[in-house]
Amino acid sequence: MIEDFSLWPPLFGGVLIGLSAGLFWLLMGRIAGVSGIFGRLLGPQPESGWTWRLAFVLGLPLGAWLAMSLDWSEMAPPPHAGWPVLIAGGLLVGFGTRLGGGCTSGHGVCGLSRLSPRSIIAVLVFMAVGVVGVFITRHVLAG
Amino acid sequence: MVRAILISGLAGLVFGIGLQISGMTDPSVILGFLDLFAISTGNWNPSLAFVLVGGLGAAAPLFAWARQRPRPMIEPVFQHPTSKGIDWRLILGSALFGAGWALVGYCPGPALAALSAGLAEPVLFVASMALGMTFYRLAFEPAS
């Protein structure tokens, strides 16, 4: 694996993500699935409310900013992709997560924790496609 | 209502801290995990695996605890996902998502969290993601 890899930041960060999702379910009875929460914020106001969704969505960059401000983490570099690929990727992620009913937080963290068969399949599919996709972009197309 | 907003904001905040600390907002960390071929060159990044271990390790007991309860602690009912069954939407949707993820290295949570960096790329990605989500809604939820 890569040099100077430390498992603690990803493990600890993962625990925070898991605590957030677990407590969100236990307290609010809602799935902390970012594609669903953000997706439903974009359409006409859902009966289930938009203010709490907005609060959650705003919390994400705020939390990242806080972690950087407190020197718990360095600012992450942006993706290397040019704007056509960024747009294509964004469109695919947006459309795909809504069609598939979730993403890494909804299906991955929450769905697997709930032992949902749908989520197990979803995670297997997007992970497999992700691996094949990166193989193609990095080792086939890149030459 | 105010309580829901505060709890949701706090949940998002902690989630965002977790995403940033774990390296998930850095596309090279994600792509470095998905690039399994890199194992053979000693360049594989196992971070995402540890995030899932930590994430599931913390979340699963809480979901298990919740199964013992008739209702959540604050809101009145558990909003169980209504979709049932494994159908073409689940599989095609997940495949399209995986493709987009492999192209850029962002998924929804990290992309939104990365907006904090004040750079153009996350903004362009999030705008495109919002557009893609809107296409879905217009195509599949015409009543809304």
General description of the model:
The complex is a heterodimer of chains A (143) and B (144). By secondary structure, chain A is mainly alpha-helical. Helix content of chain A is 71%, strand content 0%. Chain A contains six helices and no strands. In chain A, helix 2 crosses helix 3 and helix 5 packs across helix 6. With 144 residues, chain B is mostly helical. Helices cover 66% and strands 0% of the residues of chain B. Chain B is built from six helices and no strands. In chain B, helix 5 packs across helix 6. The longest helix of chain B has 21 residues. Chain B is globular, with a radius of gyration of 18 Å. Chain B starts with a helix and ends with a helix. Chains A and B meet through helix 1, helix 2, helix 3, helix 4 and helix 5 of A and helix 1, helix 2, helix 3, helix 4 and helix 5 of B.
Briefly, what is this?
The complex is a heterodimer of chains A (143) and B (144). By secondary structure, chain A is an all-alpha fold. Chain A has helices at 8-28, 34-42, 51-69, 83-100, 104-113, 117-140.
Derived from helix and strand composition plus strand pairing, the structural class of chain A reads: mainly alpha
Strand content of chain A: under 5%
Strand content of chain B: under 5%
Assembly type of the shown chains?
Answer: heterodimer
Q: What is the global morphology of chain B?
A: globular
Greatest interface:
A-B, 113 and 122 residues
